[in-house]
Amino acid sequence: MVRLKDIAEHVGVSISTVSRVIQNDQTRNVNQETKNKIWQAVKELGYTPNQHARNLVHNKQQKSNTRTMKIGWVANPKQAEINPYFSDIYTGIRDTLTNQDYTLISITKDELENESLLHKTIHDLGIEGLLLIDRIDDSLIDYIQKTIPVVGLDFFYTNKNIAIVDYDRKEAIKTVVKHLICQGHREIGFIGGGANETYKDLHDESRFKGFQAAMDEAGLAMRLEWVLNTKWKMENSYDEMNQLIQNNPGHLPTAMVCASDMMAIAAMRAAIENELRIPEDIAFFGVDNIEMGKYSSPPLSTVDIPKYEMGKMAAKTIMEIVEEKVTLPIKLILPFELVIRESSAIKRT
């Protein structure tokens, strides 16, 4: 078992200095370089600061008799408020955990990335498992997994070595493009956002990869001026679609594949304001099947993602891992379905 003394000797400081840093004691100042060295030693040596955390680390050998029945949820607090996609996932998680007498604890990315708060958040709250939807660093995931199990949702975690619940974004967009081609479309554009933290790298995003692959397989040219990186902002989707229409009045795509319904709804508004008919002049197809898509004008064709079920399965998975019913990093890829509405309904000849 790693002790404070071991960390102190590893860093070359006193035991009291190590204790102050780990306890976030503000009564005496410790310089940032020393703090960084101490936290690095904590990670390298695998120190866990309280008995509850040690019990969780060694739960296969020495099972704790005390259950907290708490599961942490790491997401941007604004996501579930402003984006129906995340709201439905959250509802699925909450309902499933509540039905089994678990408590869902909201944790922010900042609380995990601040090392003085990390141990307090993971250990002192007594959470037994962690659900991730906001992106955190791989090294942080590795460290957390030494203490408690982790389940990832959404595209940040698809290729990580942890249990995940997701859907196949690439295949979903390929299916949309194939449908539009069957409808007679040959000139197809794309609206989406990048995959990294600044959302600039569109080419590394799964939905755009699906668009590229489907166009290549069909032998259709992908025109760069018809590819819009909106960085996942509705206002950018509206503005860039507006610019596309005004800059190319004689040659527009006949259909736009949109990586989310919210991007599609904003772009449709730009098309209508420029007196384009949907779908006669230009068709739109979204992803997510959020509620407002039914009431856009015209109603939006979309890919139905089982959002509530994703949350439900993520909650079930973390409970099964916590209760040791499952020991392997399960990968659950849920199905999707095309929902055809008026925004793409007309077949072109």
TrEMBL record:
> What superkingdom heads the lineage?
Bacteria
The residue ranges of the HTH lacI-type domain are: 2-58
Keyword match Heme: no
Gene Ontology MF: a single term = DNA-binding transcription factor activity
Alphabetical keyword list:
DNA-binding, Transcription, Transcription regulation
Q: Does the keyword Chloroplast apply?
A: no
Q: What is this protein called?
A: LacI family DNA-binding transcriptional regulator
Q: Which organism is it from?
A: Neobacillus rhizophilus
